[in-house]
Hints:
Elements: H1 4-17, E1 21-22, H2 47-51, E2 60-68, E3 89-98, H3 103-117, E4 125-130, H4 134-144, E5 151-154, E6 160-162, E7 167-178, E8 186-188, E9 191-193, E10 197-212, E11 215-229, H5 230-237, H6 250-260, H7 270-287, H8 296-314, H9 322-333, H10 339-342, H11 344-375, E12 380-381, H12 383-393, H13 397-405, E13 410-411, H14 413-426
Parallel strand pairs: 1-2, 4-5, 12-13
Antiparallel strand pairs: 2-3, 3-11, 4-7, 6-7, 7-10, 8-9, 10-11
Helix pairs in contact: 3-4, 6-7, 7-8, 7-9, 7-11, 8-11, 9-11, 11-12, 12-14
The chain binds glycine.
Amino acid sequence: MYPSILIRKKFLDYFKKNNHQIVNSSSLIPENDPTLLFTNAGMVQFKNILTGVEESNLKRVATSQKCIRAGGKHNDLDNVGYTLRHHTFFEMLGNFSFGDYFKEEAIFYAWELLTKEFEVDKKKLLITFFSEDSVTGNIWKKITGFGKDKIISVKSKDNFWSMGEIGPCGPCTEIFYDYGEKFNGSVSRKGITGDRYVEIWNLVFMEFNQIEKNKRINLLKKSVDTGMGLERISALLQNTNDNYQTDIFKETINLITKLSKSENKNSENLSERIIADHIRASCHLISDGVLPSNEGRGYVLRRIMRRGMRHAHILGCSEPVFYKLAPLIINEMGDIFPELKRAETLIIETLKNEENRFKQTIDRGLKILNDEIKKTKNKKLSGNTAFLLYDTYGFPLDLTQDILKDLNISVDLKTFEKKNGRTKKESKTCMERIWRC
Ligand code: GLY
């Protein structure tokens, strides 16, 4: 087995050997960047260098960056648990060039690291590139010897990466691993989809800065920004297509099963996966200074926590469990991210308080929701009910939507928003009204 701790080290060592400076992960809260809720990619801490706002001596850099993708342009929250490879919190391994090397070397490094250092079977790899970027297609051909069946020109926006609505962006080329015919998947000019093919590494050739919705300018220096999820490459190197079966999640899932003494496991361990993901995100967000609240970052944290806590409830946990999972996360990740150790008491107390508060209302809220589901017509839950659950019982809207997802029921959002808007106007802040639990 290839432990994830060694994978992270090998990645960073490889780029160090190739004259990259190793830079620590930045906080999940972007510094001086009001355009972003959370750090959602490795390039975020380098945004000002990319755009030329900041002078820097850095030319080649590699990082293992903590990221959150729950809110904003890159939002995986709804997928978490339902797929084996999406996360709210994950670590992104990346190498960067700021006006130094460009396409040829970036592609060479990625290929050499994957196929020589990590010894991934070449035959299982496929490449996509942006259809307007034939240079990249040709470099791949030269380096891999692959034909058009393995180097796919893609027309869709999937092969043009941007950080957010505004900010640095450029065409990208993605490396996929083929898990074989037993999984469904398709390859076409529209892109690669399905469980069969997993995107493991994205190389972005940063050439532009989106300064307004419809205005894009050239960056002063052509740069490289790459991202490979540690969880996905660990799954691949640990011979599984399921990130949750890797050493990153295994102990957490075992502890969830033990604490919940769960007989009533739901299909395919959905709840365990969701809890395992959300406890990591919660610990890291708290250690970076986010506390649950009803606005902004704190609200996203609350949504993540309560979604996870509801799944603990589904597994039959009558007592709070999140705070009992936290020491394991802190122990496993605290050497790489010492801020977790420093915030241990805060993390545990915050988790305990939040779960205790939510437990006071969850049963009553679920009963109201279940009664309403029985009465629901046209597969639509009334916005009034969704709002009542939100306003009085502490059910974030997406928690209600998550519960309704399997039943194919949607929420009348228009009414919900209307009521929510009115409430916000009536009281200065939502804090005064909601979650009086
Ligand atoms: N910035 C590259 C990626 O997130 O895929």
